[in-house]
Structure formats: structure tokens, C-alpha cells
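> tool_call: predict_assembly(chains=two)
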Amino acid sequence: MKLSGKSKTSLPSPSGEVLTPELDEYLVRRRSAISHAREPMSLGGWKYALFDEAREIAEECSESGWDGYESAPISEEALRRSLILIDALPDFSPLPELVPAPEGEIAFEWNSDNERTLSVTPKTDKVVYAAFLGVNHTKCGKVPFDESWPWHEDILTILSRYFQDDESLLLSA
Amino acid sequence: MTNPYSSQLDPEERLSRFILTKRHFSRMHQKVKVQAFKPHDPSSEHPERQHSVYRTDDCSEEEIWSLGDEYVTRLRPDHKPILGRGDIKCKEVLEQDLLVVSAPVPHPRHANIVNWPEDESLREAKALELSRKAQLHLRQETSPGI
């Protein structure tokens, strides 16, 4: 599984638009730590744990009705999509919870101490997301799923602005 | 006082969504996860998106768990046990422009949340709001490891 290629300089998004200054600064600041993502758990290789968890979920939910109702089974393709997204999680990302979705996907969920929630569900050709960020402050949308740039800037902006510094989501060593 | 057997639902009445997978609740955050409130895709058997709940007003805790045991777990070939439930009020569903329709099979207290939008992101958002409003109740005998 290849890592997302990211240079140390600003990169345009797949649409050709320049990343917002806030997000770009954030990515540049954290980029040097990306290489640590594959280190052993004791050195912070947190992605290994997520890979394993995704495989575990796919196995647990490989048959329809895994939720006790009419859920669709999680396919190899759905697992593959989740692994691509895990692999491409930026190093600044708080640790997500992986959650099986009734439509047969592996979703990502972040919950902060101040009751913010972000839910991201990948699909065959898109990524669907919804977020509660505060009173009268919600966002939802869908963006293309691009394997070469799996995390769309709309979602990364939400993560960096509203979940990044939440202590309950910080990765533990 | 609400009549759980009436086809007309009271906005204040409690609805319970039984949870059968540990992955759909968080002990740490004491909350129901978003995916627990997302409807399934339509099927030939159920051409309309619907989300199964039970009307549990005036039920004791024991009665609520028994409903789940008898009408969810026992009807499944694998007898998957109930691990917990998320409780919401009918009005919290209505606030999301969803509807709650009495569906008395397999039990008179059974109902479905319907009128889900076609747009996937709106469904995700509505499920998120329902999960935020839901009160998580875990079954006492749930294994500590779950």
C-alpha cells in the first residue's frame, strides 16, 4: 500500500485550486512526521492498528444482517477503500473510530470532548460526510473519491479546524 | 398518556433503537454512533428506506429488553443478542423532517422511521443528529470487554 505522495511545498488540490493557507500551513508543518506513520506501535505507528481494525470489521461484517437488521455485507472493495483512506490520513489527524455502515462500508467517526462529531462514509466513487460543529453549525456534503488524493480538502479543513487539538482525540504513544 | 398501540404517535413518546453490534456505540463517550441511525439501502423486500425502532413509552427496563429479546434476537437465525439501545423522542425524529410510522409486525410497538432523503449526505447528517440526541443504554450483562 503506497503512501500518498506529498511534497514539502504547497500542493494544489485535484481540482487545481490552491489549498487554503490555513490547511496548507498545517500540512507543511506536519509533513515531516508522515514517515513515522509506519513505525512500530511503540514509536507511534498508529496506522497499523487502524489497518488491523478495518480488517477485523470487514471479517465481522462479511455477511448481510451483521447489525441485526438488514445491513449489507462489507465487501473486499469496501475494505480496500477504507485501507486507502487510513493510509492517506494526514499525520495531524486525530485518531478516528472505524464504524461499519449499514450500506456495507467502513465509516470513520470523530467525537470531540466538546460534542463535535464528524462522520465520513466512503462509497464507490465518492465520500459522504456530515459534521456537527456547534449550535447552528453543521456541515454535510459529498466529494469525489480519488485514490491519488483520498482525503478531500473540505474534510481535512473540518478535521484541522475543529478536531485537531482535542486532547481526547490525540494519538497516544 | 401515550397509547403505544395507536397508529398515531405522540411527539413526546420514547422510541428505542436496539443495538446488536459493539461497533455502534462508544462506552468512552457514552454515545450511540452515527451509523446506528442510518437506514439501510432499499431492497426488493423493503423498497422504501426505513429504520426500525420500538415504541417503549410506559415500559419498564425489563420490558424493553424483553421486547428486543423476543422480537429482534429470537427472530434472527443467529440469535444475535441485544447489547444496548439508543433512546430518542419521537419529536426529535420529526425535527429532522423524518416520519415515524407504526408498523405493528412483528409487534404492536414496532415502528419505522421513514421519509429519508435521497441525498446521501443529508441522510448522513440526519443520522448524525439522531445519534447526538439519543441516550445510550447498555445492557447490564454486556461483557466489559465490549
